[in-house]
Design a protein that fits this description.
The protein has 207 residues and is an all-alpha fold. The protein has one domain. The protein has ten helices and two strands, in the order H-E-E-H-H-H-H-H-H-H-H-H. A two-stranded antiparallel ribbon has the order 1-2. Strand 1 and strand 2 form a beta hairpin. It is elongated, with a radius of gyration of 33 Å.
Length: 207
């Protein structure tokens, strides 16, 4: 059994988990940094080093584009929004607003007599007819817009191109903002694991 004869021995043993924790934290801190750095290829001891994100920015762009298109947004999502009740309500409100503005601001100047006649129940009836006609025509017009979007708008390719064009510094900032807590947790976890391994080593020495 390992015998402790002086307080210095205790101090040395106590340093084992402390040093282990520092090494674990420093190792994971370096690993996190190497996700982004070096931003450009550098030759070090005969090896070419570059951060994972800068090195694989193109592959990352393709992957993000595919993920967005498959799981986050698609033409079907756009169609369901455009044909939904909220869009219909917005169209109804727009038709009513445009009609009332036309009657109040232009028709009375263009034809004062017609402007005076188009009041009360007659005005409300014309408004209802216009809203009903807009509701009838809207799905067809929206369908044409959706067809054109499907032909001309590729969400995956659009996102891919945007990510490819990002400056490396900006891309690093975006990723760090999204995963700040997770990356910090990785660093802390390295320290905790290193400390626990150090405690285990200390216990083995004491056996």
């Amino acid at each position: 059994m390992f015998e402790l004869t002086q307080w210095q021995d205790w101090a040395r043993l106590a340093m084992i988990p402390v040093v282990g924790g520092l090494i674990g934290w420093a190792t994971n801190w370096l690993a996190v940094k190497m996700i982004f750095r070096p931003r450009r290829p550098r030759r070090i001891l005969g090896f070419t080093l570059q951060g994972l994100v800068p090195k694989r920015q193109r592959e990352l762009a393709v992957s993000i584009g595919q993920t967005v298109e498959r799981h986050l947004i698609s033409h079907d999502d756009i169609e369901s929004i455009l044909l939904g009740q909220r869009t219909q309500d917005a169209i109804d409100g727009l038709v009513r607003d445009k009609f009332n503005r036309f009657v109040d601001r232009r028709l009375r100047r263009l034809n004062p007599l017609l402007g005076v006649m188009l009041r009360g129940e007659l005005r409300r009836k014309v408004e209802r007819l216009l809203v009903a006609e807009a509701r009838r025509l809207a799905p067809r017009a929206i369908g044409q817009v959706i067809d054109r979007l499907e032909d001309e708008l590729d969400f995956g390719a659009l996102v891919e191109e945007k990510v490819r064009q990002f400056d490396v510094v900006r891309l690093e900032t975006i990723i760090f903002e999204i995963a700040r807590r997770e990356l910090k947790a990785i660093e802390v976890l390295g320290g905790v694991l290193g400390f626990l391994i150090g405690l285990l080593q200390m216990a083995i020495l004491l056996i």
